[in-house]
Amino acid sequence: MNRLCRLSHVKRDLGGVSSLENTTDTVLGILQAMADVSGEIVSETGRHFHAQLATRYITVPRACEANNWGRQLWLPFDLISVTSLKVDDDADWTYGLTLVEGTDFVLWRGEDEAAYTPYVRIDLHPESTLLSTWQRNSRGREIQVVGLAGYSNETEAAGTLGTAITDATATSATMTAGHSVEPGDTLWIDSEQIEVTAVSTNTLTLVRGINGTTAATHLINAPVTRRRYPRDVEMAVKERVTGLRWDTQGGMSAQATLVGDLSVAAGTSTMRASYARWRNTVKRYKRWAIA
User: Fold this and answer.
1) β-pairing verdict for 105-109 and 119-124
2) pTM
3) What does the DSSP 8-state code read for residue 65?
């Protein structure tokens, strides 16, 4: 379950509300709201923001056949990185040609190659030696892409393992003191993604091998990193969660004085400003279908 904001950020905006108690039930309620709202923005934008290890397939538009299989393949999904890219060269549903990045194909990001944005296009090299033997394939799904799909894979340091994880099925782990992991975080340890469901001082309760990754053993002192997402997405999700958990304040800080359109006394919606930001964020990230 990929939550697109952090528990501490929501609790910070909820600070000062007398009814908020840091109990297990309260935390679980906030985490569920974070998951629900994260799912809502994924549904509304048509894209997911987490990094999913997966095998995907692309059907080459027939127009490419007249151009020696070259030119541009716009991706029907967001792509973070490629582990392997293979071609079904004889329409037998096996992928016998392994292409080399920089020689047979190149990847292009959107938004002027901005960091932490996905690749949106694959360009096949029309003079590639491998592709020169590629015959027409009327079945489709000619290209197999193995790699990380999703909008981004930005991470930040969260600490180190205090003890080794010697069992790939273990559902708990110990962090070195001073870590910054909290419930709801998605962690990378080596090549495994892990969901944190609870934290008790330095002990984490975990869901192992999420987002298509494989649960594995990890050495003591292994670096632990935490997933982050586009900051405006994190902000929009946080505001919406806060508003759901704190209706009378409309998701605003406890220190804010609500006036005008944001004032409860004015008889208007307290969620107007935050909802407008939500709609703008959805519009900014909305993924259009590629035909």
Assistant:
1) antiparallel
2) 0.83
3) G
DSSP for residue 231: H
Q: Which token pair is 207?
A: 């869901």
- Three-state DSSP at 74 gives strand
CA distance 135 to 144: 16
Average pLDDT, the chain: 84
At residue 248, the 3 state secondary structure works out as: helix
In 3D, which of 79, 77, 57, 64 has the Cα closest to residue 134? 64
Strand bridging mode 97-99 / 105-109: unpaired
Contacts of 43 (CB under 8 A, 6+ apart): none
In whole angstroms, what is the distance from residue 178 CA to residue 167 CA? 24
3-state secondary structure of 253: coil
Q: What pLDDT, on the 0 to 100 scale, is given for residue 116?
A: 84
Q: Are 120 and 165 in contact (CB under 8 A)?
A: no
Per-residue pLDDT of 11-50, as tens digits, reads 888 765 544 555 666 788 899 999 999 999 999 999 999 9
Greatest extent of the chain over all pairs of C-alpha atoms, in Å: 73
